[in-house]
Amino acid sequence: MGLRDMLRRQMRSVLQWQEDDRDTIFQLLPTPGDEIKNASRLIVGPAQGCLLVYEGRIVDEITEQTALSLKTDNHPFLTTLASLPTLFESPHKVQLYFYRTTLFPGLRWGTAQPVRYLDPVYRLPLAVGMNGTYSLRLADARTAFLRLCAGERRVDIARIKAVLDAQLPQSIAATLAGAAYSCTDIDSHLDDISARIHERLARLAGEYGLAVPEFSVNGSILDRESRERLETVFAMRARQQAAEEVHLSYERLEQIQAMRDAARSENGLAGAGLQLGTGLELAAQLLTPSARSSATDELAGRLRLLQQLLQQGLISQDDFEERKRALLDRI
Length: 331
Prior knowledge:
Blueprint: H1 3-10, E1 14-16, E2 24-28, E3 41-44, E4 48-54, E5 57-62, E6 66-69, H2 76-82, E7 94-100, E8 104-110, E9 115-118, E10 125-138, H3 141-149, E11 154-156, H4 157-179, H5 190-206, E12 210-211, E13 215-222, H6 224-245, H7 250-265, H8 268-286, H9 296-311, H10 317-328
Parallel strand pairs: 1-3
Antiparallel strand pairs: 2-7, 2-11, 3-6, 4-5, 4-7, 8-10, 9-10, 10-12, 10-13
Helix pairs in contact: 4-5, 7-8, 9-10
C-alpha cells in the first residue's frame, strides 16, 4: 500500500448513516477495508442505533442519539473500539451496522394459501383465507441482527415482514381451533380473533427481536371447495326443515323428490301414469290410520302437503278434492 493511500485511510471522516431508503432496517456502513480512521466522528441520529461488529461478533452497541469523537470522547463504545487493532491494513475487520428503531405502521398481510381447520359446528374440514394489517419495530437489535441480518450488508422491512408472514398461517389455525368459531361466525368476531392471533404472533416475533404493537384481521373468505360443501349442508338442512313442517321424515321427502324427478323424466302417458300413481300412493300413506292425528295443526299441515302435491302435478284435481274432503270430515 502506498503512502498516499495510507494517509487517505487515516484522515478524519464522519461515520454517519444517511437514510436514503426509509424501508431499510439494518445497514452496514461502508468503510475502506472495513477499518475505522483515527479521529473519526461517529454520529447516531434520532431513532437510530449502531452495532459494533468485530470479526463477525457483536462487541458493543449504541442505542441513543449521540455524536462522538473517536479520539477524545470518553464513551464505553469508544473504549471498546479503541481496544481493537483497526489502524492501517489490519486483518482484524471492524464493521458498523446502523439500524432503525422507528415504527413501521400499516403493513398489509394476507394468507398466500387458505388455512385449513375443522369447523366446530358443521364438523367439516374447511379452508379460510384472511387479510389485515399490523405494525412492526425492532425491540432487540442484537437478537434481530443475529437471526435476520448476520452476513448481509442491508436488510429491509420486506425481508423481516416475510419472516412474520410465514408464521401467520400456524397462528391463524391455532386461533380458530382454540376459539371454536364456526366459519359463519368469523367475521362477527374479528376483534376477538385479531387479539388471539396478535398474542401468538407477538410471542413469535419476540424470538426474532421484533415487536408487533398492533395487529388486525380485516376480513376472511372461504375457498370455493369449502363454499360448495357448506351449500350442500345448508340445502340438506332446508329440506329437512321443510319435511318437518309437513310431518314427514327427511328420508321420505327425498323419496318424494326422487319419484317426482323420475316422473318428469318420462314421456307421454307412461310418465303421466307414474306421476299419478306416485301421488295416489303418497296420499294413501298420509291418510292411513297410523298417520292420523286429531290435532288441527297436523291436519292443516297435511292439507298444505296435498296442495303442494297438486301444484307439482303428483296428484290430480279430483284426487286432491277427495282427499281434502276426507281430511275435513275428521274435524
